[in-house]
Each structure stands twice: as C-alpha cells, then as structure tokens.
Amino acid sequence: MSILVSTGLVTSVVRYCHLCMVVFYNVVTFAMQKNIEPRYAIKFCVKLNKSATQTFDSLTEAYGDGTLSITMVFKGHKAFKEGRENVEDDPRSGRPISSTNDENVEVVPAVMVKDRRLSVRMIAEETGLDRNAVHRILTDHLHMRKICAKLVPKNLSVEQKANRLEICHDLQGRLKIEPNFFG
Predict the structure, then answer these.
(1) Range of 51's domain?
(2) Residue 46 above 70 pLDDT?
(3) Whether residue 116 sits in one domain with residue 73
(4) How many whole angstroms separate alpha carbon 179 and alpha carbon 175?
(5) Can you give the CATH number for the domain in which 139 is found?
(6) What does the pLDDT look like over 104-138, one tens digit per residue?
(7) Residues 109, 79: Cα–Cα separation, whole Å
(8) Is residue 146 part of a domain?
(9) DSSP state of 137
(10) In the prediction, which pLDDT does 67 show?
(11) If you average pLDDT over residues 67-82, what whole number do you get?
(12) Which residues of 2-11 are buried (b: 16+ CB within 10 A; e: fewer)?
C-alpha cells in the first residue's frame, strides 16, 4: 500500500476518476432530452463494468423515485453490454401522423367555407380524412374551437381585425352624419 502512495498511483487514479465524473456530468448536462440522461448514465456504468443491479442502485441514488424502472435499466444495461453505442431512441414502426400535411390543412378550411356548422365527423366524411386528423387540423393548425355548434377562429386574423376596425369607423362616421341612425 505504501508503494502505491509513494509512487503517486493513488493520486493519479483519483484524478482520473474525478476527470471521468466531470466528463460524465458534462455529457449528461448537454443531453437535451430528459429520457436520454439515464441512458447516458447506464452506458457510463457499463463502461465501468458495473452490474445491472449496481447500475440501478446508482440511478436510484442519483434520481430518487424519478428513475427508470428496474426492468428498463436491465434492458438498457444489456443493450449497452452487447455493444449498443447510440443512446437515442430507435426508429419506431407504425403509421406516422401524415394526415396533417399541408395539403390536408388546406382542404379542411375549403370545406369549412361552405358551412361553418359542419361537425368534425361531417368534415371527415367529406374530406376522407380521419376524425382525429380533422380535429387536430382544426384545433392545432387552424386554431379553431366550437361555439354554439359553429366552428369559429380562436383569435381574429390581422385581416379580420382591420375589417372590423374599418366597419366601426364607417359606423361612427354615419352616426355623426345621421344622429338617429341606430334609433
């Protein structure tokens, strides 16, 4: 033991571990997504040859109750142990949300111009889109909501505001000319 201390090996190991922790902290700090951070920690623990149980214990100590489940930690540990390098999510199979493309976002207002009292189901039937897609287009893209069985914009556009202002000025001018205009 005294040989290790006299050669400075212990000091070097401590500095190396400190450097590793600084690097690990920086990697985790720059991880943009919240669910990526524990994956970096799992990958780091695998590189240190910690067992899956030790990795889970470290994550629990670091994150408390907000950590991944033991099953997810074990799956991640196994994946990194088998050579996985990427901490990002793998592409998922399934149908992407493609029904809210620009073309469909333009089709729905064209149908709405004909009759604002159409329901989401009726618009979906007329356009051939899914009801959820029509609802997503109306609320998220067109910023509309339903009031008294009529879909109306949540906020007025600049053009609508200018039009209303012009009408108000016209009414004020007419009221000055004809005081009994409203009476």
Answers:
(1) 2-81
(2) yes
(3) no
(4) 5
(5) 1.10.10
(6) 888 888 888 887 778 888 888 988 888 888 888 88
(7) 48
(8) yes
(9) I
(10) 82
(11) 89
(12) eeeeeeeeee
